[in-house]
Write a structure and sequence with these properties.
mainly beta, seven-stranded mixed sheet, four-stranded antiparallel sheet, 53% strand
């Protein structure tokens, strides 16, 4: 019902910015909760930010004030604006959709922050 494709990852210096985007296909996007997660080498996947169908947002403490999640239901995209990046933000970032108790995942995009 949902397919997700991430883009926008890359290499950036500490203090820089990147904008990730998640493009979704499927008819239930506008009523699905969406989110971004990340997984660093040797670590478990962790929540970065989520946004409900109604636009309510939630952030991990480690990214509050630096990252902003949004959604455009008409274009079926979920951007993640990342500012003031730190080396510890280095990870593979995954887009997630949650609908009717089922999780959908994209393939991930690599973000590397150099010090």
């Amino acid at each position: 019902q949902l397919q997700l494709v991430e883009s926008g990852g890359g290499l950036v210096q500490a203090g820089g910015s990147l904008r990730l985007s998640c493009a979704a296909s499927g008819t239930v996007f506008s009523i699905s909760a969406m989110g971004w997660y990340r997984q660093a080498p040797g670590k478990q996947r962790e929540l970065v930010a989520t946004i409900t169908a109604g636009g309510r947002t939630n952030y991990a403490d480690s990214v509050k004030g630096r990252f902003t999640i949004s959604r455009d239901n008409a274009k079926k995209i979920v951007p993640l604006q990342m500012n003031s990046l730190k080396p510890e933000d280095t990870a593979v970032y995954y887009c997630n959709a949650f609908f009717r108790s089922q999780n959908y995942w994209g393939q991930g995009t690599q973000v590397t922050v150099s010090s």
